[in-house]
Write a structure and sequence with these properties.
Layout (H helix, E strand, L loop, with lengths): L1 H13 L4 E4 L20 H7 L5 E5 L6 E6 L2 H10 L2 H9 L2 E3 L4 E6 L5 E3 L4 E4 L4 E4 L11 E2 L9 E2 L2 H8 L33 H8 L2 H8 L2 E3 L6 E4 L11 E4 L4 E4 L13 H9 L3 H9 L3
Helix pairs in contact: 6-9, 7-8, 8-9
Length: about 290
């Protein structure tokens, strides 16, 4: 495993991409990865990192503008191919693709922020994110495996319009991504590690599972005032006849207007919301949400 890890890490490095170590069988970074988001670690550092039985991730964005279209299921990927034109199918055939725990990752070079197609369960992993790469082990027990016919060097450069068509996201969606100031100490996905450079599972879940995604698993939601920040729906914690439950996507909190609901007294984060809705402990909720990442 060590030889394969190092060989794969060096292949990513030689093609200009930034990789870093992840705990084996999980998705938690073992280093403060934002340091390497815009500039790959030197080859000597990769040799020191990938000595044991680890997973590996590649940073999205960077100089190569790596963007990954994440299909939650393989059937979703093949549905996309069925609706795509011959030109897009040709591009996808040439580019690097990976089978994940349940679905499929398709790699491109295009400047993009992270976005979601909730209905089709398609994520765009863009600037400020990362994805696991072969030969990593998914929490489900499946191994990330590159599909035959393309390699890292063959990752295709595409336009934003093509990206939106592949992910079935309206082209009118705002595209420019923020230039995250990683040097200031973090990114939208980064979390602060402990003295050994590790991060807690709780912080990792809160950094990678948006509260709107959790809420949508529990109840239908709709945007309030069209801003995209506030969403409302029927409360998943108490018997709700009218939409009184709301989430603030910027603060990552949920509350309820109903005075009979426990969420009326205090706001909760994504883990707390899942725990209250499912009637389980905070720790149990964290473990379940790990599998949403």
């Amino acid at each position: 495993m060590t030889d394969e890890l190092r060989r794969t890490a060096m292949e990513w490095h030689s093609n200009g991409y930034s990789v870093f170590p992840i705990e084996r069988g999980g998705k938690r970074p073992l280093v403060k990865w934002s340091v390497y988001a815009n500039a790959p670690a030197p080859a000597s550092q990769l040799v020191r990192w990938f000595r044991g039985n680890l997973n590996m991730a590649v940073a999205c964005g960077g100089e190569k503008h790596l963007t990954v279209v994440d299909f939650d299921t393989q059937s979703g990927y093949y549905k996309m191919l069925a609706r795509a034109g011959s030109e897009i199918r040709g591009i996808i055939d040439k580019t690097y693709k990976v089978k994940t725990g349940r679905g499929l990752h398709v790699y491109f070079n295009v400047d993009s922020r992270s976005r979601k197609n909730v209905d089709d369960k398609i994520d765009i992993k863009g600037d400020g994110g990362y994805v696991l790469v072969p030969p990593s082990l998914h929490p489900s027990g499946n191994v990330y495996t590159a599909m035959p016919g393309a390699c890292i060097a063959s990752i295709q450069e595409i336009s934003n319009e093509t990206l939106c068509e592949i992910a079935n996201i309206p082209i009118s969606d705002p595209e420019p991504c923020a230039n995250y100031n990683y040097e200031s100490g973090g990114s939208v996905f980064d979390v602060v590690g402990d003295d050994l450079g590790f991060v807690s599972d709780f912080d990792y879940v809160l950094a990678n599972v948006p509260i709107l995604r959790v809420a949508l698993r529990l109840t239908p939601m709709f945007p309030k005032n069209g801003s995209g920040r506030y969403w409302m729906g029927r409360c998943p914690v108490h018997k709700d006849t009218d939409p009184s439950f709301w989430v603030d996507t910027e603060l990552g909190i949920a509350k309820c207007y109903s005075t009979v609901c426990p969420l009326n007294d205090r706001a909760v984060n994504a883990i707390g919301l899942w725990a209250m809705a499912k009637g389980m402990s905070y720790a149990e909720a964290m473990q379940e949400l790990l599998y949403m990442i």
